[in-house]
Amino acid sequence: MQVEALAIERQTLSQSGNTVFRVDLADARTVVLRMSPLRGAFAYTAHNLGALCDIGVPVQTVLGSGALSSGGSFVVMSWLPGRDLTFELPLMQAAEAAALADTVATCQQRVAALPPGQGFGWAPIGRPALGASWSDMFGRPVEEPLDEPPTPLNRLRSRLRGLRRELEPYFQSVQSVCFLDDVTTKNVIVDKGKLSGLIDLDFVCYGDPLLAVGNTLAQLAVQEGGAARIYGEALVERWQPEGEARRAMYFYSALWLTTAIVAADAIGDAARASALGPIVHGLLDASGA
């Protein structure tokens, strides 16, 4: 792309380890520049986006990619107008939130209709994943009791381990279904209440699509406002998980939030850890654990 850049603005939300910039070009276009310290980090990005575009999922277009002199890699992509869902939800009306959840679920269900995967876990679309089963993604079930102090976090972990043991037959039964695991309250770009597109799709996941639903519910649980609650309810209503699948959805939510508690403890944020604890217990209660 031999076009002069008029303005470059670093984007701060990225949690992928990539450096992301918005670039305004002299030809009136706006693009995204993503850089990774890893060689080949974007080797399958164009492949994935092409496959998703073919099934009607709104995504970016790759305009160019290559290697950096530092040994890393870069990709230039089209810009999607709007902001991440996490910022837009507090501004949305109830009907907008419900409609958006339905649209995102439609995208995920189109992805789920792609051919089954070879293996479980993360991979480019149509390429083998490394896991032999979905159960492998969560480690081997651990028998109780463990010799650990009865701290609030350890009590949560004990309940979570118990639910994980109970869900082992379900995890073993999960098929290798394609889904977008990191499409939650982030990587969903919303413009004027409507879906502008989905981003950060260098890889997909093969396994249980309810993982994305559960992780979304976990992130919504710490957001204020009625729109967040309605978005979550609409998402669950669209998927309609029942029985062990519904319990697994709550397990995924509780696992995500427990990881957040561990991170809060690690940096000494006792207030956040304390606030998240009751939410996790509520999710585990809902699962019947």
From TrEMBL:
<keyword id="KW-0808">Transferase</keyword>
<dbReference type="InterPro" id="IPR002575">
    <property type="entry name" value="Aminoglycoside_PTrfase"/>
</dbReference>
<dbReference type="GO" id="GO:0016301">
    <property type="term" value="F:kinase activity"/>
</dbReference>
<feature type="domain" description="Aminoglycoside phosphotransferase">
    <location>
        <begin position="15"/>
        <end position="228"/>
    </location>
</feature>
<dbReference type="Pfam" id="PF01636">
    <property type="entry name" value="APH"/>
</dbReference>
<dbReference type="InterPro" id="IPR011009">
    <property type="entry name" value="Kinase-like_dom_sf"/>
</dbReference>
<dbReference type="InterPro" id="IPR051678">
    <property type="entry name" value="AGP_Transferase"/>
</dbReference>
<protein>
    <submittedName>
        <fullName>Aminoglycoside phosphotransferase (APT) family kinase protein</fullName>
    </submittedName>
</protein>
<keyword id="KW-0418">Kinase</keyword>
